[in-house]
């Protein structure tokens, strides 16, 4: 009996101990769970305590890596710029700006643009030197009030302003509100009588970033001209002129093709913009390279039925199209993606003609565009004397502008400068727009001296142009080096150099030829150099 009782009490003790251990284990398990959960609860800065997607993923990855012996190293993904402020930094990372070798903390290109010849003192621009004026919406009665920094509107009266309109114009308000405008509009607002853009304007980088990255919302074939090009539209009414890649970058134009049968080159449009800027002209609208998807960014969104009808899939499975135009718009000359991706040049559009009408001028040194005929300037060595007698070449700076353009064209071997344009509102006292450079950079192995004929026949050149050319011929600022570095800033440089080395060295060779022509002129002409930099006697060193 006694032994029976003691056996029962021992069993009770064991049972009690087992229960206690169970409770203790349960408590421990609960404690562990709550600790683990706390690691995934986010510090809430806002009123919401719902974890975001990333945070949930983070928790999942913790639990995943803890259960796996070989956790993957974390990889940093590129971020898309959220604001325009991020744009420049983003662009610099993407396109490798500052890739040039640095001397004294500056690249050669930065050194060049710091040179006094690229920072010559210039008279301040007056009200009527701006292409588009900015008016405040407030009535004149509101002037001087605290709310002066209201919205701006473009003065669309390009024919001149009445006295009451003048009252609404406030020079101060245009800088303050600029930040709110999209880059294309700021570009338009910065166009002056003197140049298309200010090289130092930070908007330039934002504009090229905008052109290179904005989602294409619309694409139609651009009317005018002879070769295929597209007018694309972006959000905020932005537009751009797009020229597709038609041949490989290194392809030299067939020697048997006449200049007027040559293809246009997207990289020539890009390189021309860089060259014009390097020469200090700033007369070509900013152009940037881009890879587009011909299916999603053209075929699927276009409303242009004529263009749509020309799309097809090539035998190797690439998406191609050819559009409708005078030259090379046929299935024998298609523009093809790989299978969808296509290199293009994207040029900023100038203000609409209704806002800023332009005048097109036939170049006095226009070619005959014939296989047999010669133009007047090819037959008459004294041709310039007749040109100099007729307006607008008889006075002002038009002839000098034309010679600047001839120098640019000779350097890039562009034989297609049949016309040039100016903004009508500036009359004859304004710069020449260097539009349409698609036929430049066709051949690197030979030069075309006839492009320099305006300089050779007139023997006149701006001093500022000549000094910059001399500077660019020095080993420390060599034109080819400056171009190489400048072109590295274009997004397409990541695919392949925009200009091959033979094209770059052709620039140096041609620059030396320009300087030789000037020297020859000085040998038999007085007043070759037009002194537009009075008081600046320093020779480049
Ligand atoms: N960036 C621009 N913004 C607005 N208009 C432009 C721009 N570039 C060119 N244009 C206009 O479009 C017209 C056609 O463009 P472009 O000259 O480049 O084409 P094209 O086919 O090469 O012409 P062409 O066959 O006459 O040489 C030009 O004459 C000019 O008036
Ligand atoms: Mn052309």
Structure, described:
The chain is an alpha+beta fold and 541 residues long. It has a domain at 358-530. 37% of the residues lie in helices and 11% in strands. It has 18 helices and 16 strands. The strands form 6 sheets. Strands 5-6-7-12-8 form a 5-stranded antiparallel sheet, with helices on both faces. It has a 3-stranded antiparallel sheet with strand order 9-10-11, with no helix packed on it. It has a two-stranded antiparallel ribbon with strand order 1-2. A hairpin with a 5-residue loop joins β9 and β10. The termini are far apart. Adenosine-5'-triphosphate is lined by residues 224-227, 241, 264, 285, 347, 349-350, 416, 435-436, 438. Mn(2+) binds at residues 264, 436.
| Main sheet summary | 5 strands, antiparallel
Helical residue percent band: 25-40%
Ligands:
adenosine-5'-triphosphate, manganese (II) ion
The DSSP helix count reads 18
**Derived structural class:** alpha+beta
Percent strand equals 5-15%
Query: How many extended strands?
Result: 16
First-last Cα distance: 121 Å
Low-pLDDT residue intervals, each spanning 5 or more residues: 28-98, 136-173, 537-541
- Give me the side-by-side strand order of the main sheet: 5-6-7-12-8
Large-scale geometry: globular
Radius of gyration: 33 Å
Rounded average pLDDT: 80
């Amino acid at each position: 009996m006694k032994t029976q009782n003691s056996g029962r009490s021992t069993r009770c003790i064991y049972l009690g101990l087992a229960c206690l251990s169970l409770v203790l284990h349960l408590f421990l398990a609960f404690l562990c769970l709550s600790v683990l959960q706390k690691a995934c609860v986010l510090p809430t800065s806002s009123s919401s305590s719902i974890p975001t997607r990333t945070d949930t993923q983070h928790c999942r990855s913790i639990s995943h890596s803890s259960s796996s012996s070989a956790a993957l190293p974390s990889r940093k993904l590129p971020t898309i710029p959220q604001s325009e402020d991020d744009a420049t930094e983003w662009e610099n990372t993407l396109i490798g700006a500052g890739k040039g070798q640095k001397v004294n903390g500056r690249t050669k290109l930065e050194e060049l643009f710091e040179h006094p010849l690229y920072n010559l003192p210039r008279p301040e621009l007056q009200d009527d030197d701006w292409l588009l004026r900015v008016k405040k919406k407030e009535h004149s009665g509101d002037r001087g009030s605290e709310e002066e920094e209201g919205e701006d509107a473009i003065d669309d009266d390009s024919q001149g302003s009445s006295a009451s309109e003048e009252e609404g114009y406030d020079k101060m308000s245009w800088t303050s509100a600029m930040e709110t405008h999209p880059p294309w509009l700021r570009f338009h607002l910065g166009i002056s009588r003197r140049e298309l853009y200010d090289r130092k304007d930070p908007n330039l980088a934002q504009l090229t970033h905008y052109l290179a990255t904005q989602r294409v919302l619309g694409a139609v074939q651009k009317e005018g001209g002879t070769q295929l090009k597209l007018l694309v539209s972006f959000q905020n009414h932005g537009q751009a002129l797009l020229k597709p890649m038609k041949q490989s970058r290194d392809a030299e134009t067939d020697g048997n093709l006449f200049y007027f049968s040559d293809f246009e080159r997207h990289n020539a449009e890009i390189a021309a913009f860089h060259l014009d800027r390097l020469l200090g002209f700033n007369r070509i609208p900013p152009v940037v390279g881009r890879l587009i998807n011909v299916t999603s960014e053209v075929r699927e969104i276009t409303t242009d039925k004529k263009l749509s009808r020309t799309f097809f899939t090539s035998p190797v499975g690439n998406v191609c199209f050819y559009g409708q135009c005078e030259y090379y718009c046929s299935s024998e000359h298609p523009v093809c993606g790989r299978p969808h991706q296509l290199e293009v040049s994207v040029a900023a559009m100038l203000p609409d003609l209704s806002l800023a009408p332009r005048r097109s001028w036939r170049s006095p040194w226009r070619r005959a565009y014939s296989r047999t005929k010669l133009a007047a300037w090819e037959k008459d060595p004294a041709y310039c004397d007749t040109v100099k007698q007729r307006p607008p070449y008889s006075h002002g700076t038009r002839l000098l502008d034309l010679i600047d353009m001839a120098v640019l064209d000779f350097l890039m071997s562009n034989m297609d400068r049949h016309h040039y344009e100016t903004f009508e509102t500036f009359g004859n006292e304004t710069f020449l727009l260097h539009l349409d450079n698609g036929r430049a950079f066709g051949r690197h192995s030979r030069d075309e001296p006839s492009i320099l004929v305006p300089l050779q026949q007139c023997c006149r050149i701006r001093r500022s142009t000549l000094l910059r050319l001399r500077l660019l011929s020095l080993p420390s600022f060599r034109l080819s080096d400056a171009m190489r570095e400048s072109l590295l800033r274009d997004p397409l440089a990541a695919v392949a150099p925009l200009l091959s080395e033979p094209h770059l060295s052709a620039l140096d060779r041609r620059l030396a030829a320009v300087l030789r022509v000037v020297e020859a002129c000085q040998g038999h002409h007085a007043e070759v150099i037009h002194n537009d930099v009075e008081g600046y006697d320093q020779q480049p060193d």
